[in-house]
Amino acid sequence: MNKQYYRDYVTLTNGEYQYLLDKFGEYELDRKLNALNDSKIKKPKRQETIRSDYHALLSSGMQTVEPIRDRLQIEAMKQELRQKSERNYFLFIMGINTGLRISDLLPLRVKDVFGQTHIVMKEKKTHKTKRFLLNLELRHQIEEYVRDLDSDDYLFPSHKTGLPIQRVQAYKILNEAASRVGIKAFGTHSMRKTFGFWHYTIHKNVALLQDIFNHTSPDITLRYIGINQDIVDKSLEHFSL
């Protein structure tokens, strides 16, 4: 299978990249790709001992980000974010209710969501045009949030520049809030995984969720939202010889 360059000196197959992205999330994987690339520049001979860039990234100690499986923790996260910033709270609300990637959420403007039943966009990762439904409760939240904003304003602006906050800032905001309420293994990708986990928990329709996420198989979708691991854990809980 052909490999592509994801940095100047880091190559992965599309399948390898997708697996790492689903496992670790955009921010964490981006950080590790940069670190591996820098390492290969500084110590090229040392890198010759590594079987592949894929294995180097897998063994680099990245923590797998997880969905929030507890509704009480979701509510705690909402409260924690809202008392600090309405913008940060709304970012979390949008993330867990649409399942959009953080790279697609941050550039959104008021006109993209206000008065709309769907978000229509070209996904940055896949370059495919997708329609994402805005549920009724989320539409009410949008109306409240954008009340004093102009149509061309960004939904998640930096207070300094007015431009969208960067992914690293979004990660820090959400990760710190998660830590304060006792949520572990949380990253920006956790919002998308939380959407998927609860969509499956409520509807039990993996084929539908697979289509929403553009995954190639149901197994990938179940593993992505942490259902496979839950099943394994449950099967072993009372297993004793």
UniProtKB/TrEMBL annotation:
Q: Does the keyword rRNA-binding apply?
A: no
Which SUPFAM superfamilies does this entry report, sorted A to Z?
A: DNA breaking-rejoining enzymes
Q: Which intervals hold domain Tyr recombinase?
A: 63-237
Sorted alphabetically, the keyword list is:
DNA recombination
Q: Which domain of life is it from?
A: Bacteria
Per the UniProt record, the lineage of the source organism begins with: Bacteria, Bacillati, Bacillota, Bacilli, Bacillales
Query: Which Pfam families does the annotation name?
Result: Phage_integrase (PF00589)
* Keyword Ion transport listed: no
Q: Biological process GO terms, please?
A: DNA integration; DNA recombination
Report the PROSITE patterns cross-referenced here: TYR_RECOMBINASE
The terms under GO molecular function for this entry are: DNA binding
Name of the protein described by the UniProt record: Site-specific recombinase XerD
